[in-house]
Amino acid sequence: MLFLIIALSWFFSYLLEEKLIFWIGIIISLIMSIFSYWFSDKIIISMVKAKLIEKKDNPEVYRLVENLCLTAGLPLPKIYILNEAQPNAFATGRNPQNSIIVITRGLLEKLDRTELEGVIAHELSHIGNRDVLLASAVVILAGAISLLSDHFLRTSSWRRRDGNSKNHQAPVFLILGTIAAFLAPLAASLIRLAISRKREFLADASGALLTRYPEGLARALEKISSDPNSLKVASSATSHLYISNPFKGNQAKSWFVKLFMTHPPVEERIRVLRGMKF
User: Fold this and answer.
1) Catalytic (active-site) positions
2) Number of Cβ within a 10 Å radius of residue 87
3) Which residue from 205, 204, 216, 206 is spatially nearest to 117, judged by alpha carbons?
4) N or C: which end of the chain has fewer CB within 10 A?
5) Hey, what long-range contacts does 4-8 have (CB within 8 A, 24 or more apart)?
6) In degrees to the nearest 10, what's the CA dihedral of 41, 198, 82, 95?
7) H or E, element range at 170
8) Domain 44-131+195-274 - what CATH class?
9) Going by DSSP bridges, is the β-strand pair 100-104/51-52 parallel, antiparallel, or unpaired?
10) How many CA atoms lie within 13 A of 245 on its CB side?
């Protein structure tokens, strides 16, 4: 990501003869990303309309989360219940001290204790591995690339219409710059999605290490992926948060489609979990 930003900033600055392109994009993307990072938990909870619960509301779930937090050395997160039939869960929050776990009603109804423990351990691993922080950093870089590309396209288009361009570079360089401006945001998105998939594998492994029983999470993933219920509150903006893709029937097998998947194939995750030895 950093290499891509540096290369593009130099190339666009060279073509447009504007040294401030990169810095303007970085400043704007930093302001937007820091705001979204600081308030991400509140924004996401308002989007999915989950309900905060206390220990008296569901003592069993609270005890399970408390025990896993003690084992992992993490502070107890706030626990929310999402009134949806599809079994699923996600974690969010800018750091372990301000973390949240959201569990659907379907997850509590359809999973046994060891399976539920595997799912919660996975989500706690996301918190412990600082995946929200990493995701925010990637968003900052991807945002900078998008702003940089957009500024180049707008500026070069305005200069061509105005006829006052001072740039004497060969037309082939301008053509290459335009192609780069279109392809750079796509490349940044592919990198971001690849990182998201790798972090899911890491959370699976960390969660299995936490419970010492990878079969529990493997069985949970089987039930979650085979459940036919749709998740009404799911959107493209939040789908990457869930332990399993909340959209049903959209996980094609081709390598091209896999490039744009926010999660690794469930079959591959289950195979890796069942191949773990303790």
Assistant:
1) 123
2) 27
3) 216
4) C
5) 4/141, 4/145, 4/184, 4/187, 4/188, 4/191, 5/141, 5/144, 5/145, 5/148, 8/145, 8/148, 8/149, 8/180, 8/184
6) -30
7) none
8) alpha beta
9) unpaired
10) 22
Q: Which residues of 31-63 are buried (b: 16+ CB within 10 A; e: fewer)?
A: eebeeebeebbeebbeebebeeeeeeebeebbe
d(CA 42, CA 53): 16
String of DSSP letters for 197-238:
HHHHHHHHHHHHHHHT-HHHHHHHHHHHHH-----TT--TTT
Residues 6+ apart with CB under 8 A from 128: 72, 73, 74, 96, 206
Return d(Cα 84, Cα 57) in angstroms, integer.
Answer: 17
**pLDDT cut 90: percent of the chain above it:** 42
- Cα 103 from Cα 45, distance rounded (Å): 12
Residue 140 pLDDT grade (very low, low, confident, very high; cuts 50, 70, 90): low
Q: Considering only CA atoms, which of 103, 78, 82, 92 is closest in space to residue 126?
A: 92
Residue 60 tokens, joined: 């069993």
- DSSP H stretches of helix in the chain: 2-16, 21-38, 40-48, 59-72, 105-110, 113-128, 131-162, 171-211, 214-226, 255-259, 266-274
CB 118 within 8 A of CB 211: yes
Q: What percent of the chain has pLDDT over 70?
A: 76
- pTM: predicted TM-score of the whole model, two decimal places: 0.77
Q: Which amino acid is at 118?
A: G
pLDDT-derived band at 204 (thresholds 50, 70, 90) equals: very high
